[in-house]
Amino acid sequence: MIEDILDEAQGKMESTLSVFRDELSRMRSGRASTALVDRMTVEYYGQDTELRQLASISTPEAMQILIRPYDKGAIRNIEKAIQMSDIGVNPNVDGENIRLNMPALTRERRLELVKFLNRRMEDNRVAIRNIRRSANSDLQDFEKEKLISEDDRKRGETDVQKLTDKFVEQIGELGAAKEKDIMEV
What we know:
- The protein is an alpha+beta fold.
- The chain has 2 domains: 2-26 and 106-183, Ribosome-recycling factor (Topoisomerase I, Chain A, domain 4); 34-101, Gyrase A, domain 2 (2-Layer Sandwich).
- Helices cover 60% and strands 15% of the residues.
- The protein is built from 5 helices and 6 strands.
- The chain has helices spanning 2-26, 51-54, 75-84, 107-144, 150-183; strands spanning 41-44, 47-50, 55-61, 64-69, 92-93, 98-101.
- Strand 1 (41-44) and strand 2 form a beta hairpin.
């Protein structure tokens, strides 16, 4: 029973960490990254489709993203989707390809990104702590229903806390690495 609660809590915490990793990969840093655009949705024949399904995406230079649509008819829709997004880059269309030349980040923009990063880190820490609270609540309910003893509940809460500490630390490490990447000139 306690193992089930721990497994469920760990699964939820891993999911939260996975979403945070994905979010970090899409956050702009000092160099161009295909993750900025690969999950961008583009209207394609009336359907919202991820850009990575419509084109090959690469970074031929450190500050440039090259998008090669499989269907040349999708170029206008891809260009429109990029212009409507919040990445702050105007696409350059050269007939068959779309190039995104990433401007260098200003110091102010870097600091804004770090503030945003810190907010997202705290949001994810709170999510991990909420999972802990839910697991501890389940343990207390099991104790009230006489399914586990008080000692088992305390042991379970200790294990849940160890899990929580581990995942909060991982969020901190990922955030610190991303902050270093953002502030790197």
